[in-house]
What we know:
alpha/beta, single chain, Rossmann fold
Amino acid sequence: MERTAKLQRTFRFLSSRCFKPILNEYAALLTKKLDISPRRVILWGHQLTHYPLTTLERYSVPFSWIHNPLRELSESARLAALERQTHLTKPKGSLGQLEELAVRLAAMQDAPIPSADPARIVVFAADHGIAQAEVSAYPQSVTGQMIRNFTSGGAAISVLSRRLGAELEVVDMGVLEDPGPMPGLTNRRIGSGSRDFRKTPAMNHSELADALRAGQDTVLRARHDGMRVFIGGEMGIGNTTSAAAILCALLGIPPETVAGPGTGIDEKGMVRKARAIQDGLDHHVLDLKSPLEILRILGGYEIAALTGAYIACAQEGMTAIVDGFICGAAALVAQTIRPQLREWLIYSHRSSEPGHLPILRALNATPLLQLDMRLGEASGGAVALSLVQMACDLHRDMATFQDAGVSGKE
Length: 410
């Protein structure tokens, strides 16, 4: 099997170098004859120089929805919110980013006076085959155990969601041990964890499509239920390794610079993690050609679901608060595919994971908080939600100079 795999990789390498000019010329002739967009022409699995997409990412039915139009921000609501800020009983700009948050939400919601309630927090849970490389301090059984902790109310995100008055939904995307039905758990199981990406792609194309769609479906349900804010979270032993691998593939960063402690591994564990990431990058070097392929090969079910959810939020006009490192990796994939969706994402905090800062820099994103958090579960997003709620409350409930009988600036 290994010899066959090496022969296949060698053939792909040689054919991509030797025959690609011929394939490009043939593709151009075929395009002209069929009168179709050049981007639709993909021959024998090769990415052609004139046709940048690989596989069936844009034009097959399972993936086509991710290229649907994004909702436009309301410029009139943004200007009205800005105008209201000038009349509130405070010096202009004195509430800093809280003012900017209220104005951003006004544009997102097409409402001069926006609201951050109701909000829904969705934690996607899945296991990862890369955990076999001993990249975590905890066994994979912890993922399923934490699902029960989430739904019974004992996890950090459970406490935070209660405090904030936000709904909490947990989605089983594919943990190793099926937890079975329980209140508060949505079953979207794709498998019993992804595969070890050192040896084979973490997901096949059908699994990737299902995971992306699961993320979209959670946003559509939230929209149907009247939610105004969506916060995605994750749980999965091994998922910081997958997130770091995605980051390395997308940005060309060496694994040793972004392989962090995750669940609390020591220095030797971080060396193992970096080595596992490099092994995966080397094994798939000829196939990491596009954001979706990188997500499919190196990611996991819950990371793909988050990616789909962020795209769906921008399509549905729903504010998305992005949690830390792993959610940031999903947002990086989503924004690489659909750059304009950045207008719909609010970055909650800067994680202490070393890979998060390169993501924020790549996205030109300024997080609201820096609290040295690295728990995941959407915990940082939940803490940031309290700021967004306060920003909207201040914008709505503060008196104007006229209402309060206070003299404005001369």
